[in-house]
Amino acid sequence: LKVNINGKITEIKNNISLKQFINEKGLDKNKIVIEYNKEILDDIEDIIINDGDNIEILKIVGGG
Amino acid sequence: MSDNLIIGGKELKSRLFVGSGKYSSDSIMPKIIEKSGAEVITVAIRRVDFDAKDSNVIDFIPKNCQLMPNTSGARTAEEAVRIALISKAIGCGNWIKIEVISDNKYLLPDNYETIKASEELVKKGFVVLPYVSPNLMDAKRLRDIGAAAVMPFAAPIGTNKGLQTKELIQILIDEIDLPIIVDAGIGKPSQACEAMEMGAAAVLVNTAIATAGDPVMMAEAFGKAVEAGRNAFIAKTGAVKKYAQASSPLTGFLR
């Protein structure tokens, strides 16, 4: 599958859920927010990533 | 008599807000917050960098602090609203510093887009603190749509140039019945103190502390300066006179 993750076209394997993807990246789901095809997700549990999806994974950083 | 600043129903003892950007490490934040006395801390929202070490600034900000996420990176009202909604979803609460900038050289805010974003986010229940160029008419518009404060810049972001817009900020303080928070450009504690003497409700400082030789000591200096300036404003400064006025009695001289 080819998906757009944080502005980069990324190859990922078939049938992977967002939850698995986050776990594989070692991210704490309580400290990020995911915008999935422009929609902010309250819950990432049940979503299987599809070809062409647009995924933004965001966190809090220092800023002024 | 209490002199706490109330914004969005929250009572604040400290009138110094600090940013959390530009520090060599997020782990310095607890000391910066403790020594400055600041209760309101700005943060930003960015994409996760999968290749970088996963540090999280939020782990270093005490839970009793009020987070003020900004919408930096937004070039339009629409993008600012999107970032505000993300910041709320990520757990930053309902305060939002609206920052809409499309000028990369001076980083001057786009007041028009800022007002549009502010209006929409007030309607969505946010406590809206817009970062603006100091303009009286725009500040009136922001007041009318329900902004919680107006945050004019003293000088362009990160320049440490001080109160370059002093006259315009004074007009906002005098004419707008909302907290005027001087944001951006303040480089030294004396400048923060002066803004407070003028009647600013608070100041927001990031670069001046983060890029100081000793950021923790500078944080403390800013805390004291803001308190001194506020006290001076309440105490009301004496009149300026054209000619000398003796401080000692003019009678009973030894001859």
Question: Could you characterize what this model shows?
Answer:
- The complex is a heterodimer of chains A (about 60) and B (about 260).
- With about 60 residues, chain A is mostly beta strands.
- In chain A, about 10% of the residues lie in helices and about 40% in strands.
- Chain A has 1 helix and 5 strands.
- Chain A is globular, with a radius of gyration of 12 Å.
- In chain B, the strands form 3 sheets. A 5-stranded parallel beta sheet of chain B has the order 5-4-3-10-9. A 3-stranded parallel beta sheet of chain B has the order 6-7-8. Chain B has a two-stranded antiparallel sheet with strand order 1-2.
- In chain B, helix 2 crosses helix 3 (about 110-125).
- Chain B is globular and about 85 Å long.
- The model of chain B has no long low-confidence stretch (mean pLDDT about 95).
- The interface between A and B is medium-sized, with 22 and 35 residues.
- Strand 5 of chain A pairs antiparallel with strand 4 of chain B, so a sheet runs across the interface.
Poorly predicted parts of chain B? none
Q: Overall 3D geometry of chain A?
A: globular
Instruction: Please count the helical segments of chain A.
Output: 1
The tally of strands of chain A reads 5
Main β sheet profile of chain B: 5 strands, parallel
Radius of gyration over C-alpha positions of chain B, nearest whole angstrom: 20 Å
Sheet with most strands of chain A? 5 strands, mixed
In terms of structural class, how would the helical and strand content of chain B be classed?
Answer: alpha/beta
Strand content of chain A: 35-45%
Silhouette of chain B? globular
The beta-strand count of chain B equals 10
N- to C-terminal distance of chain A: 38 Å
Low-confidence stretches of chain A: none
